[in-house]
Structures are given as C-alpha cells and as structure tokens.
Automatic annotation (TrEMBL):
Positions of region (Disordered): 198-217
Protein name in the entry: J domain-containing protein
Single GO biological process annotation from the record: proteolysis
Membrane-spanning parts: none
UniProt xrefs under InterPro entries: ClpP/crotonase-like_dom_sf, DnaJ_domain, J_dom_sf, Tail-specific_protease
A Pfam match: Peptidase_S41
J domain ranges (all copies): 171-235
A molecular function GO annotation: serine-type peptidase activity
Length: 452
C-alpha cells in the first residue's frame, strides 16, 4: 500500500463546517460509526493557561465546556488551532443567544468567560440546556458534519446496544408466542405450528410473510445452543448467517461488526467445513453498517495471515498501521474461489475489510461502490458534568480510514473490482473463475436482498 498522507492527496480538510450553525442532536446515524468503546480518554484540563482575560473561578458549566474544548483540541482527527476552535464556540454562543458574542481571548479560557457572560442571567435549567446545546453544536459542526456530538447516557447506551446488535423493541420468543427462556424443543414445536398457520397465507399476504420470516429468524436463533444462550443472557442477536447457496458454494453474510461477530464467524466457518464438495465461498458485506473497528485486527488474520499490515488510520497528519492479531483459519483453506459482495450501504468497518481484501487479492470484490463513511468515532467520558441527574459523554471523530490506494475512504468509498451494473459482469467474473456454479450463485445472492 502506498503510505501517503491524506493531506498530500486531497489537501487538508477544513475543521469547520459552514458558518451557519445548525442545531443537531446526535441520536440518529450513530449506528453507522466505527467505534472504539474500550479505549476511553480521561485527560484532565490544564490548570495553567496564560491569558490576559480576567477569569473567575470556573462554575460547573464553564468546567464542562472547558473540558469539551480541551478534549476536542487533543483528540480530534485533524490539526485544529485555538483560533479555529474558539471561533466555532463563539458562533455557537451567537446562534443560541441570538446576539453577537465576544471572545476575550481565542483559547479555552476565553470560551469559558464568554459562556459565563451568555448564561449569567439564566435560570439553572436554562444554563444546563444552553451549555449542553453549545457543546453539541460545536462538535456536530466539525468536519465531517454530524459525526461528532454530545451523548446523554440514554444515547450512549443506545449506541452500545446498536453496536452489540441488541434491539430492545424485539422479542424473539414473542414471535413464536412463547414465554422468555422457553426450551429449544418448545421453540421448534412452536415454529412448526406457526409455519403451518402462515405458510399458505404468506404467499399472498405481506404481513403473513413478515410474521413467518420473523418466526423463522426466531427459530434459527433460539434452537442453536450458543446463540440462544447469548440472546437469553444479553439480548444480542447473531450477526453472521450462512447457508449453502449451491452444492459447492458456501454463503456467509456479515450483518455488522459486533463484539461477538468474530467468534460467530469462526463458529459458522467451522460448522460447514466438513460439508463434502465445497470449494467456493461468497462473503456478503452488503448493508453491513460497520461497528466495533477493534475486531478487524482479529477478523482479517484468517484471510491474510498473522502479523500482516491490515489497514491504516490517519490522525493529525500521521498514518498508523495496524497488523493482524490472528492467523489462518483451517476451515477457510478449502475455498479456492472467493467472491465478496458490497453495495452503497456497505460502510465503516466493512469498508476497511473490503479494501484490505482487495489489496491482498483475497477474493473478487463484486457489487457497487461502498458508502464512503470513513471516520472512526471515539466515545470519550467527561469528568465535569452540568447535571447531577444526567451524565454526558463526547462522541468525537478520532481518525480517518485509508483505502488500499492511499486515498481516504471518507466521501469516496471503495470501488469493486467488478461492477454489478456492467452488462458483462458475469463474463468479467468468469475471467477470474471459470466456474459456472460460482457465477450462478453470485447472481442468485445479489438478486436476493441481504435482509432475507
């Protein structure tokens, strides 16, 4: 891989969005992030800031904003100056106050003094709301727009649940009219009953088809010992599904990268390893929204070997390489022909996996250009809080991911080796693998929506 800095490729990114600041609550879209959950920064505010501004002792609101300021300055992916960051805070205060705002100095202290002036006549609830909105406005308006923000505890938990593939609105047992923790045998019996009731109706009734699909999914999860135990304990559903799409072709779909995904993948690969005649594999990354990026150092090892340079992240002008932490997986060795499916909803960690597999020629990448979501967000706790009943954290873009050609994934995506929109895509695939069963299986897989 060409080890070129993003700066030298496309020019330095502006850390500010447009001058018009938008109120934006970072509650939507967080499922599509790269996320570092375990590594949390806990830097303390510097106590020695020299300025000509007269600064009173910080109250809770100034301390909160000061910490957001310093942690943004230290951890944001791009180089950002005090002048740039303090100006963004000034614009935020002006937007919220609907009046011009003055910075006594272009640094953290100046921002805190400005905040104190803006909220001095407000009630306590108004001060809390103003301060939280200001922090969120500033973070949201960092480039890329809308990727960073302030998260409440509820939003933090929702983010962690999404990455872990936990959906509290769903009850798999209820899909089979069973109480929670029913036995696997009871699940199987209930599914057969449900299938008998719905099979004929599902052919013409979309609602009946959905109910049958939900029941089938519940049966698959709750009759497997490992997935049932995980679901009963945590509520996490499987992120890896597989089946034989043809007698000689295995199909494995990765829905997202959750903490359990690597173990699920190994288990699935091992479970079909002894099937006779298998020699081809389709890995489906379509609609994969990414997730826990830490997994990739483990996930890529079975495909490219141990201690290999898998990918690089860009942070403040420097590229950091990451090596694989696992090695070859014996149950994958039998597959001599591999196709990887991607589309415009393949994003985040899935895009990094795609570009690495493309770089190492693990398989043939077939589909459409991926989404181009190339940021890594870090969940950062805050030591200073403005509300005893609510604890906030920062979600901040900490790094940018890089393609196999040295270009950023952000805004560009990863191009497939074969575009499925080409009229002769099947001919192109046959040029790689002159094997009709795999070409036919690839067409069948692409024609089937990834959610089914």
């Amino acid at each position: 891989m060409a080890r070129r800095m993003w700066k030298s490729q496309s020019g330095r990114i502006s850390v500010l969005a447009t001058i018009g600041i938008f109120l934006f609550v970072v509650a939507s879209g967080v499922a599509a992030t790269y996320l570092y959950i375990p590594r949390l920064y806990t830097q303390k505010l510097s106590a020695n800031i020299t300025t000509n501004a007269q600064v009173p002792q910080d109250d809770a609101y100034q301390a909160f904003i000061g910490e957001v300021y310093e942690k943004t300055l230290n951890n944001y992916f791009d180089k950002i100056t005090d002048e740039q960051l303090s100006e963004l805070f000034r614009l935020g205060v002006a937007k919220l106050a609907k009046a011009d705002a003055v910075l006594p100095s272009k640094d953290a202290v100046g921002v805190k003094v400005m905040l104190g002036v803006a909220i001095k006549d407000k009630t306590a609830p108004e001060k809390k709301d103003f301060t939280a909105q200001l922090a969120n406005i500033v973070l949201v308006n960092l480039k890329p727009f809308g990727r960073s923000g302030i998260l409440s505890e509820k939003q933090q938990q929702a983010l962690v649940d999404t990455v872990s593939n936990i959906d509290h609105s769903k009850d798999l047992y209820a899909a089979l009219d069973l109480p929670k923790a029913a036995s696997a045998q009871a699940v199987d019996d209930a599914f057969k009953k449900k299938e008998t009731e719905l099979a004929q109706k599902a052919k013409t009734d979309p609602e009946a088809k959905k109910q049958l699909d939900d029941a089938t999914h519940a049966r698959n999860v709750l009759t497997d010992t490992k997935t049932k135990q995980r679901y009963d304990k945590t509520g996490a559903e499987p992120t890896v599904v597989s089946h034989l799409i043809a007698p000689t072709v295995a199909y494995i779909r990765l829905q997202k990268f959750s903490p359990q995904t690597f173990d699920e993948f190994v288990s699935v690969a091992n479970s079909i390893a002894d099937k006779p005649g298998l020699d081809s594999l389709i890995i489906d990354l379509r609609d994969n929204i990414g997730g826990a990026v830490d997994l990739l150092q483990y996930f890529l090892g079975p495909f490219i070997g141990p201690g290999q340079y898998g990918y690089e992240f860009w942070h403040k002008g420097d590229l950091t390489p990451y090596k694989t932490k696992t090695g070859w997986l014996a149950s994958l060795a039998k597959y001599k022909k591999v196709v990887v499916l991607v589309n415009g909803k393949t994003q985040s960690s899935a895009e990094v996996m795609t570009t690495t597999m493309k770089k190492y020629r693990v398989g043939v990448i077939v589909g459409t250009t991926t989404k181009g979501w190339g940021t890594i967000e870090q969940l950062i706790p805050l030591d200073h809080q403005i509300d005893g009943e609510q604890k906030y954290s920062m979600l901040l873009v900490q790094s940018i991911t890089v393609r196999d050609d040295g270009q950023p994934i952000e805004g560009k995506g990863v191009d497939p080796m074969i575009k499925i929109t080409d009229k002769d895509w099947e001919k192109q695939l046959r040029a790689y693998f002159d094997y009709p069963p795999l070409v036919q299986a690839t067409k069948k897989a692409w024609d089937t929506p990834p959610s089914q």
